[in-house]
Amino acid sequence: MSPPGGRIAPRDHEEQIFETGAGIPIDELYGPDAITGFDPGRDLGLPGEYPYTRGPYAGMYRSRIWTRRFQVGFGSPEETNERIKYLAANGANGFVITIDLPTSYGFDSDDPLADGEVGVTGVAISTLEDMAALYAGFSPSQLSYALSIRPPVSSVTLAMLACVAKRLGVDFKDVIGTQQNDPFYQMSGGPLQTITQFFPLEGTLRLCIDNIEYISQHLPRLNWMVTNGYNLRETGVNAIQDGAFTLGHAFNIFRLARQRGLDIDVFPRRASFFLSASIDFFEEIAKFRAMRRLYARTMKNEFGASNPECWRLRFSVQSAGNTLTTQQPRVNMVRAGIEAMAAVFGGAQSIHLCSYDEGLGLPTEESSRMALRTQQVIAYESGITKTIDPLAGSYYVESLTNRMEQEIGGMLADIDRRGGMVACIRDGWLEAEINAARIRNQRDIDDGKRVLVGVNRFQVESSEDPPIHIHKIRADEWGERRAAMLRRYRADRDPGRWSDAMARIEGAWRDGDNMVPVLMDALEHRVTMGEAHKAMRKAQHWSFR
What we know:
Elements: H1 40-44, H2 60-63, E1 67-72, H3 77-89, E2 94-98, H4 101-104, H5 128-134, E3 144-148, H6 153-168, E4 178-180, H7 192-195, H8 201-218, E5 223-228, H9 229-234, H10 239-260, E6 271-277, H11 281-302, E7 315-319, H12 332-346, E8 350-352, H13 365-380, H14 395-417, H15 421-426, H16 429-447, H17 475-491, H18 495-511, H19 515-524, H20 529-543
């Protein structure tokens, strides 16, 4: 048997590394000299007031507990809807709808490229009826869905959402939730030419602005997620890079929206961010506070926004997936709890905890319920929500917040000198930064500089780690059922109306129209996700010949 602490026990004389995860040195003790020049009025303000260091809303969690959001999505829309109903009955009030790989690139479930991937990494969405099935028993004015999809696919799902609301008689001004609208988040996984092989970057950026324009004009309560900083952080970059890449991307998109003629005092009101809360507790808190302050100052001073709603950075948080381990997976509950508390102290509006088994497969009902209960204990038992920004004034927290603001701001300036995030992606700089971070992180684990409990310290034999139940993947079954459904769906439509709708997509693209209402029309005439995607891709190719 191994000792209770594992096969490798700690030794008191082992050298500790006194720095944050991003390499910021940590002093032995912090006092007033650590925040010389600190001005509470200038640097903190009040909750809900510029520069929003203490939170975007005046009452924060005393007025309303954050949204307890859960990532759901597997198999068919009907199966995903059943999981949503289960979690809603247990107290969850927001859901991140994750889509499968084929859908994420705009392919229908019966496309040859989808073989073996249908429903595996998320739910398959190919038709307007699929979106309606996701909302079965719910209203888009009552339950908050965040659709984890990027352009061009997000333009189609936005049109689907609008069509579902229209069917249900829900006024567009009452539709809630979040449409992810980050054109870059899948570009964090490899070279630009690989990520954009199915749809050109120019078209992706156009549809991103189309979505912003349509939402800001027609769906005033619907958030559009300008930056998926979470996926960037999952590549291995540190907290400073996380903050700089996320804000740099958002500001680049805002400049493009302004070039379209959109009002800087209107469209950013519903901009939202999806961020990671990693394991370095105080650094993550400081990151969130520093990002809010930087955002407010940039929106006010650089962009010239006069509407305070446009100075306010609002974000949802997911606990880090890249801190989860497959070894001793139940320890992941502790990691997720610490990361959730960092998000709370950092002032998040919505929190999603990874389930402890996500390193091994899709969450089960039991592991999802445990993640929800963790949030509920923090919210209702811990007492940390009873006052707003309880760490404000801490010598260490304020010093670290100031340092994070300086470091993130410095990297933002470097990004601007390089021409913005679009240019940084085009020339390969972002990919190089990500790859360097991945190598550095693995080296730190291999060398023991970074302790990973159960991996390079405190291991146990696999036979001593009780097995856990894993969600069963049924890719072949899901694929066959979806292919049969799509055959019936296409057989039941009017070929002439379908053909006319497809032609309207191509014509609108070439004419430079906003594509969202055109896609709504196409979906009502039973054009599928893959067909709409193909028509836009064809029109874009024609436009650039």
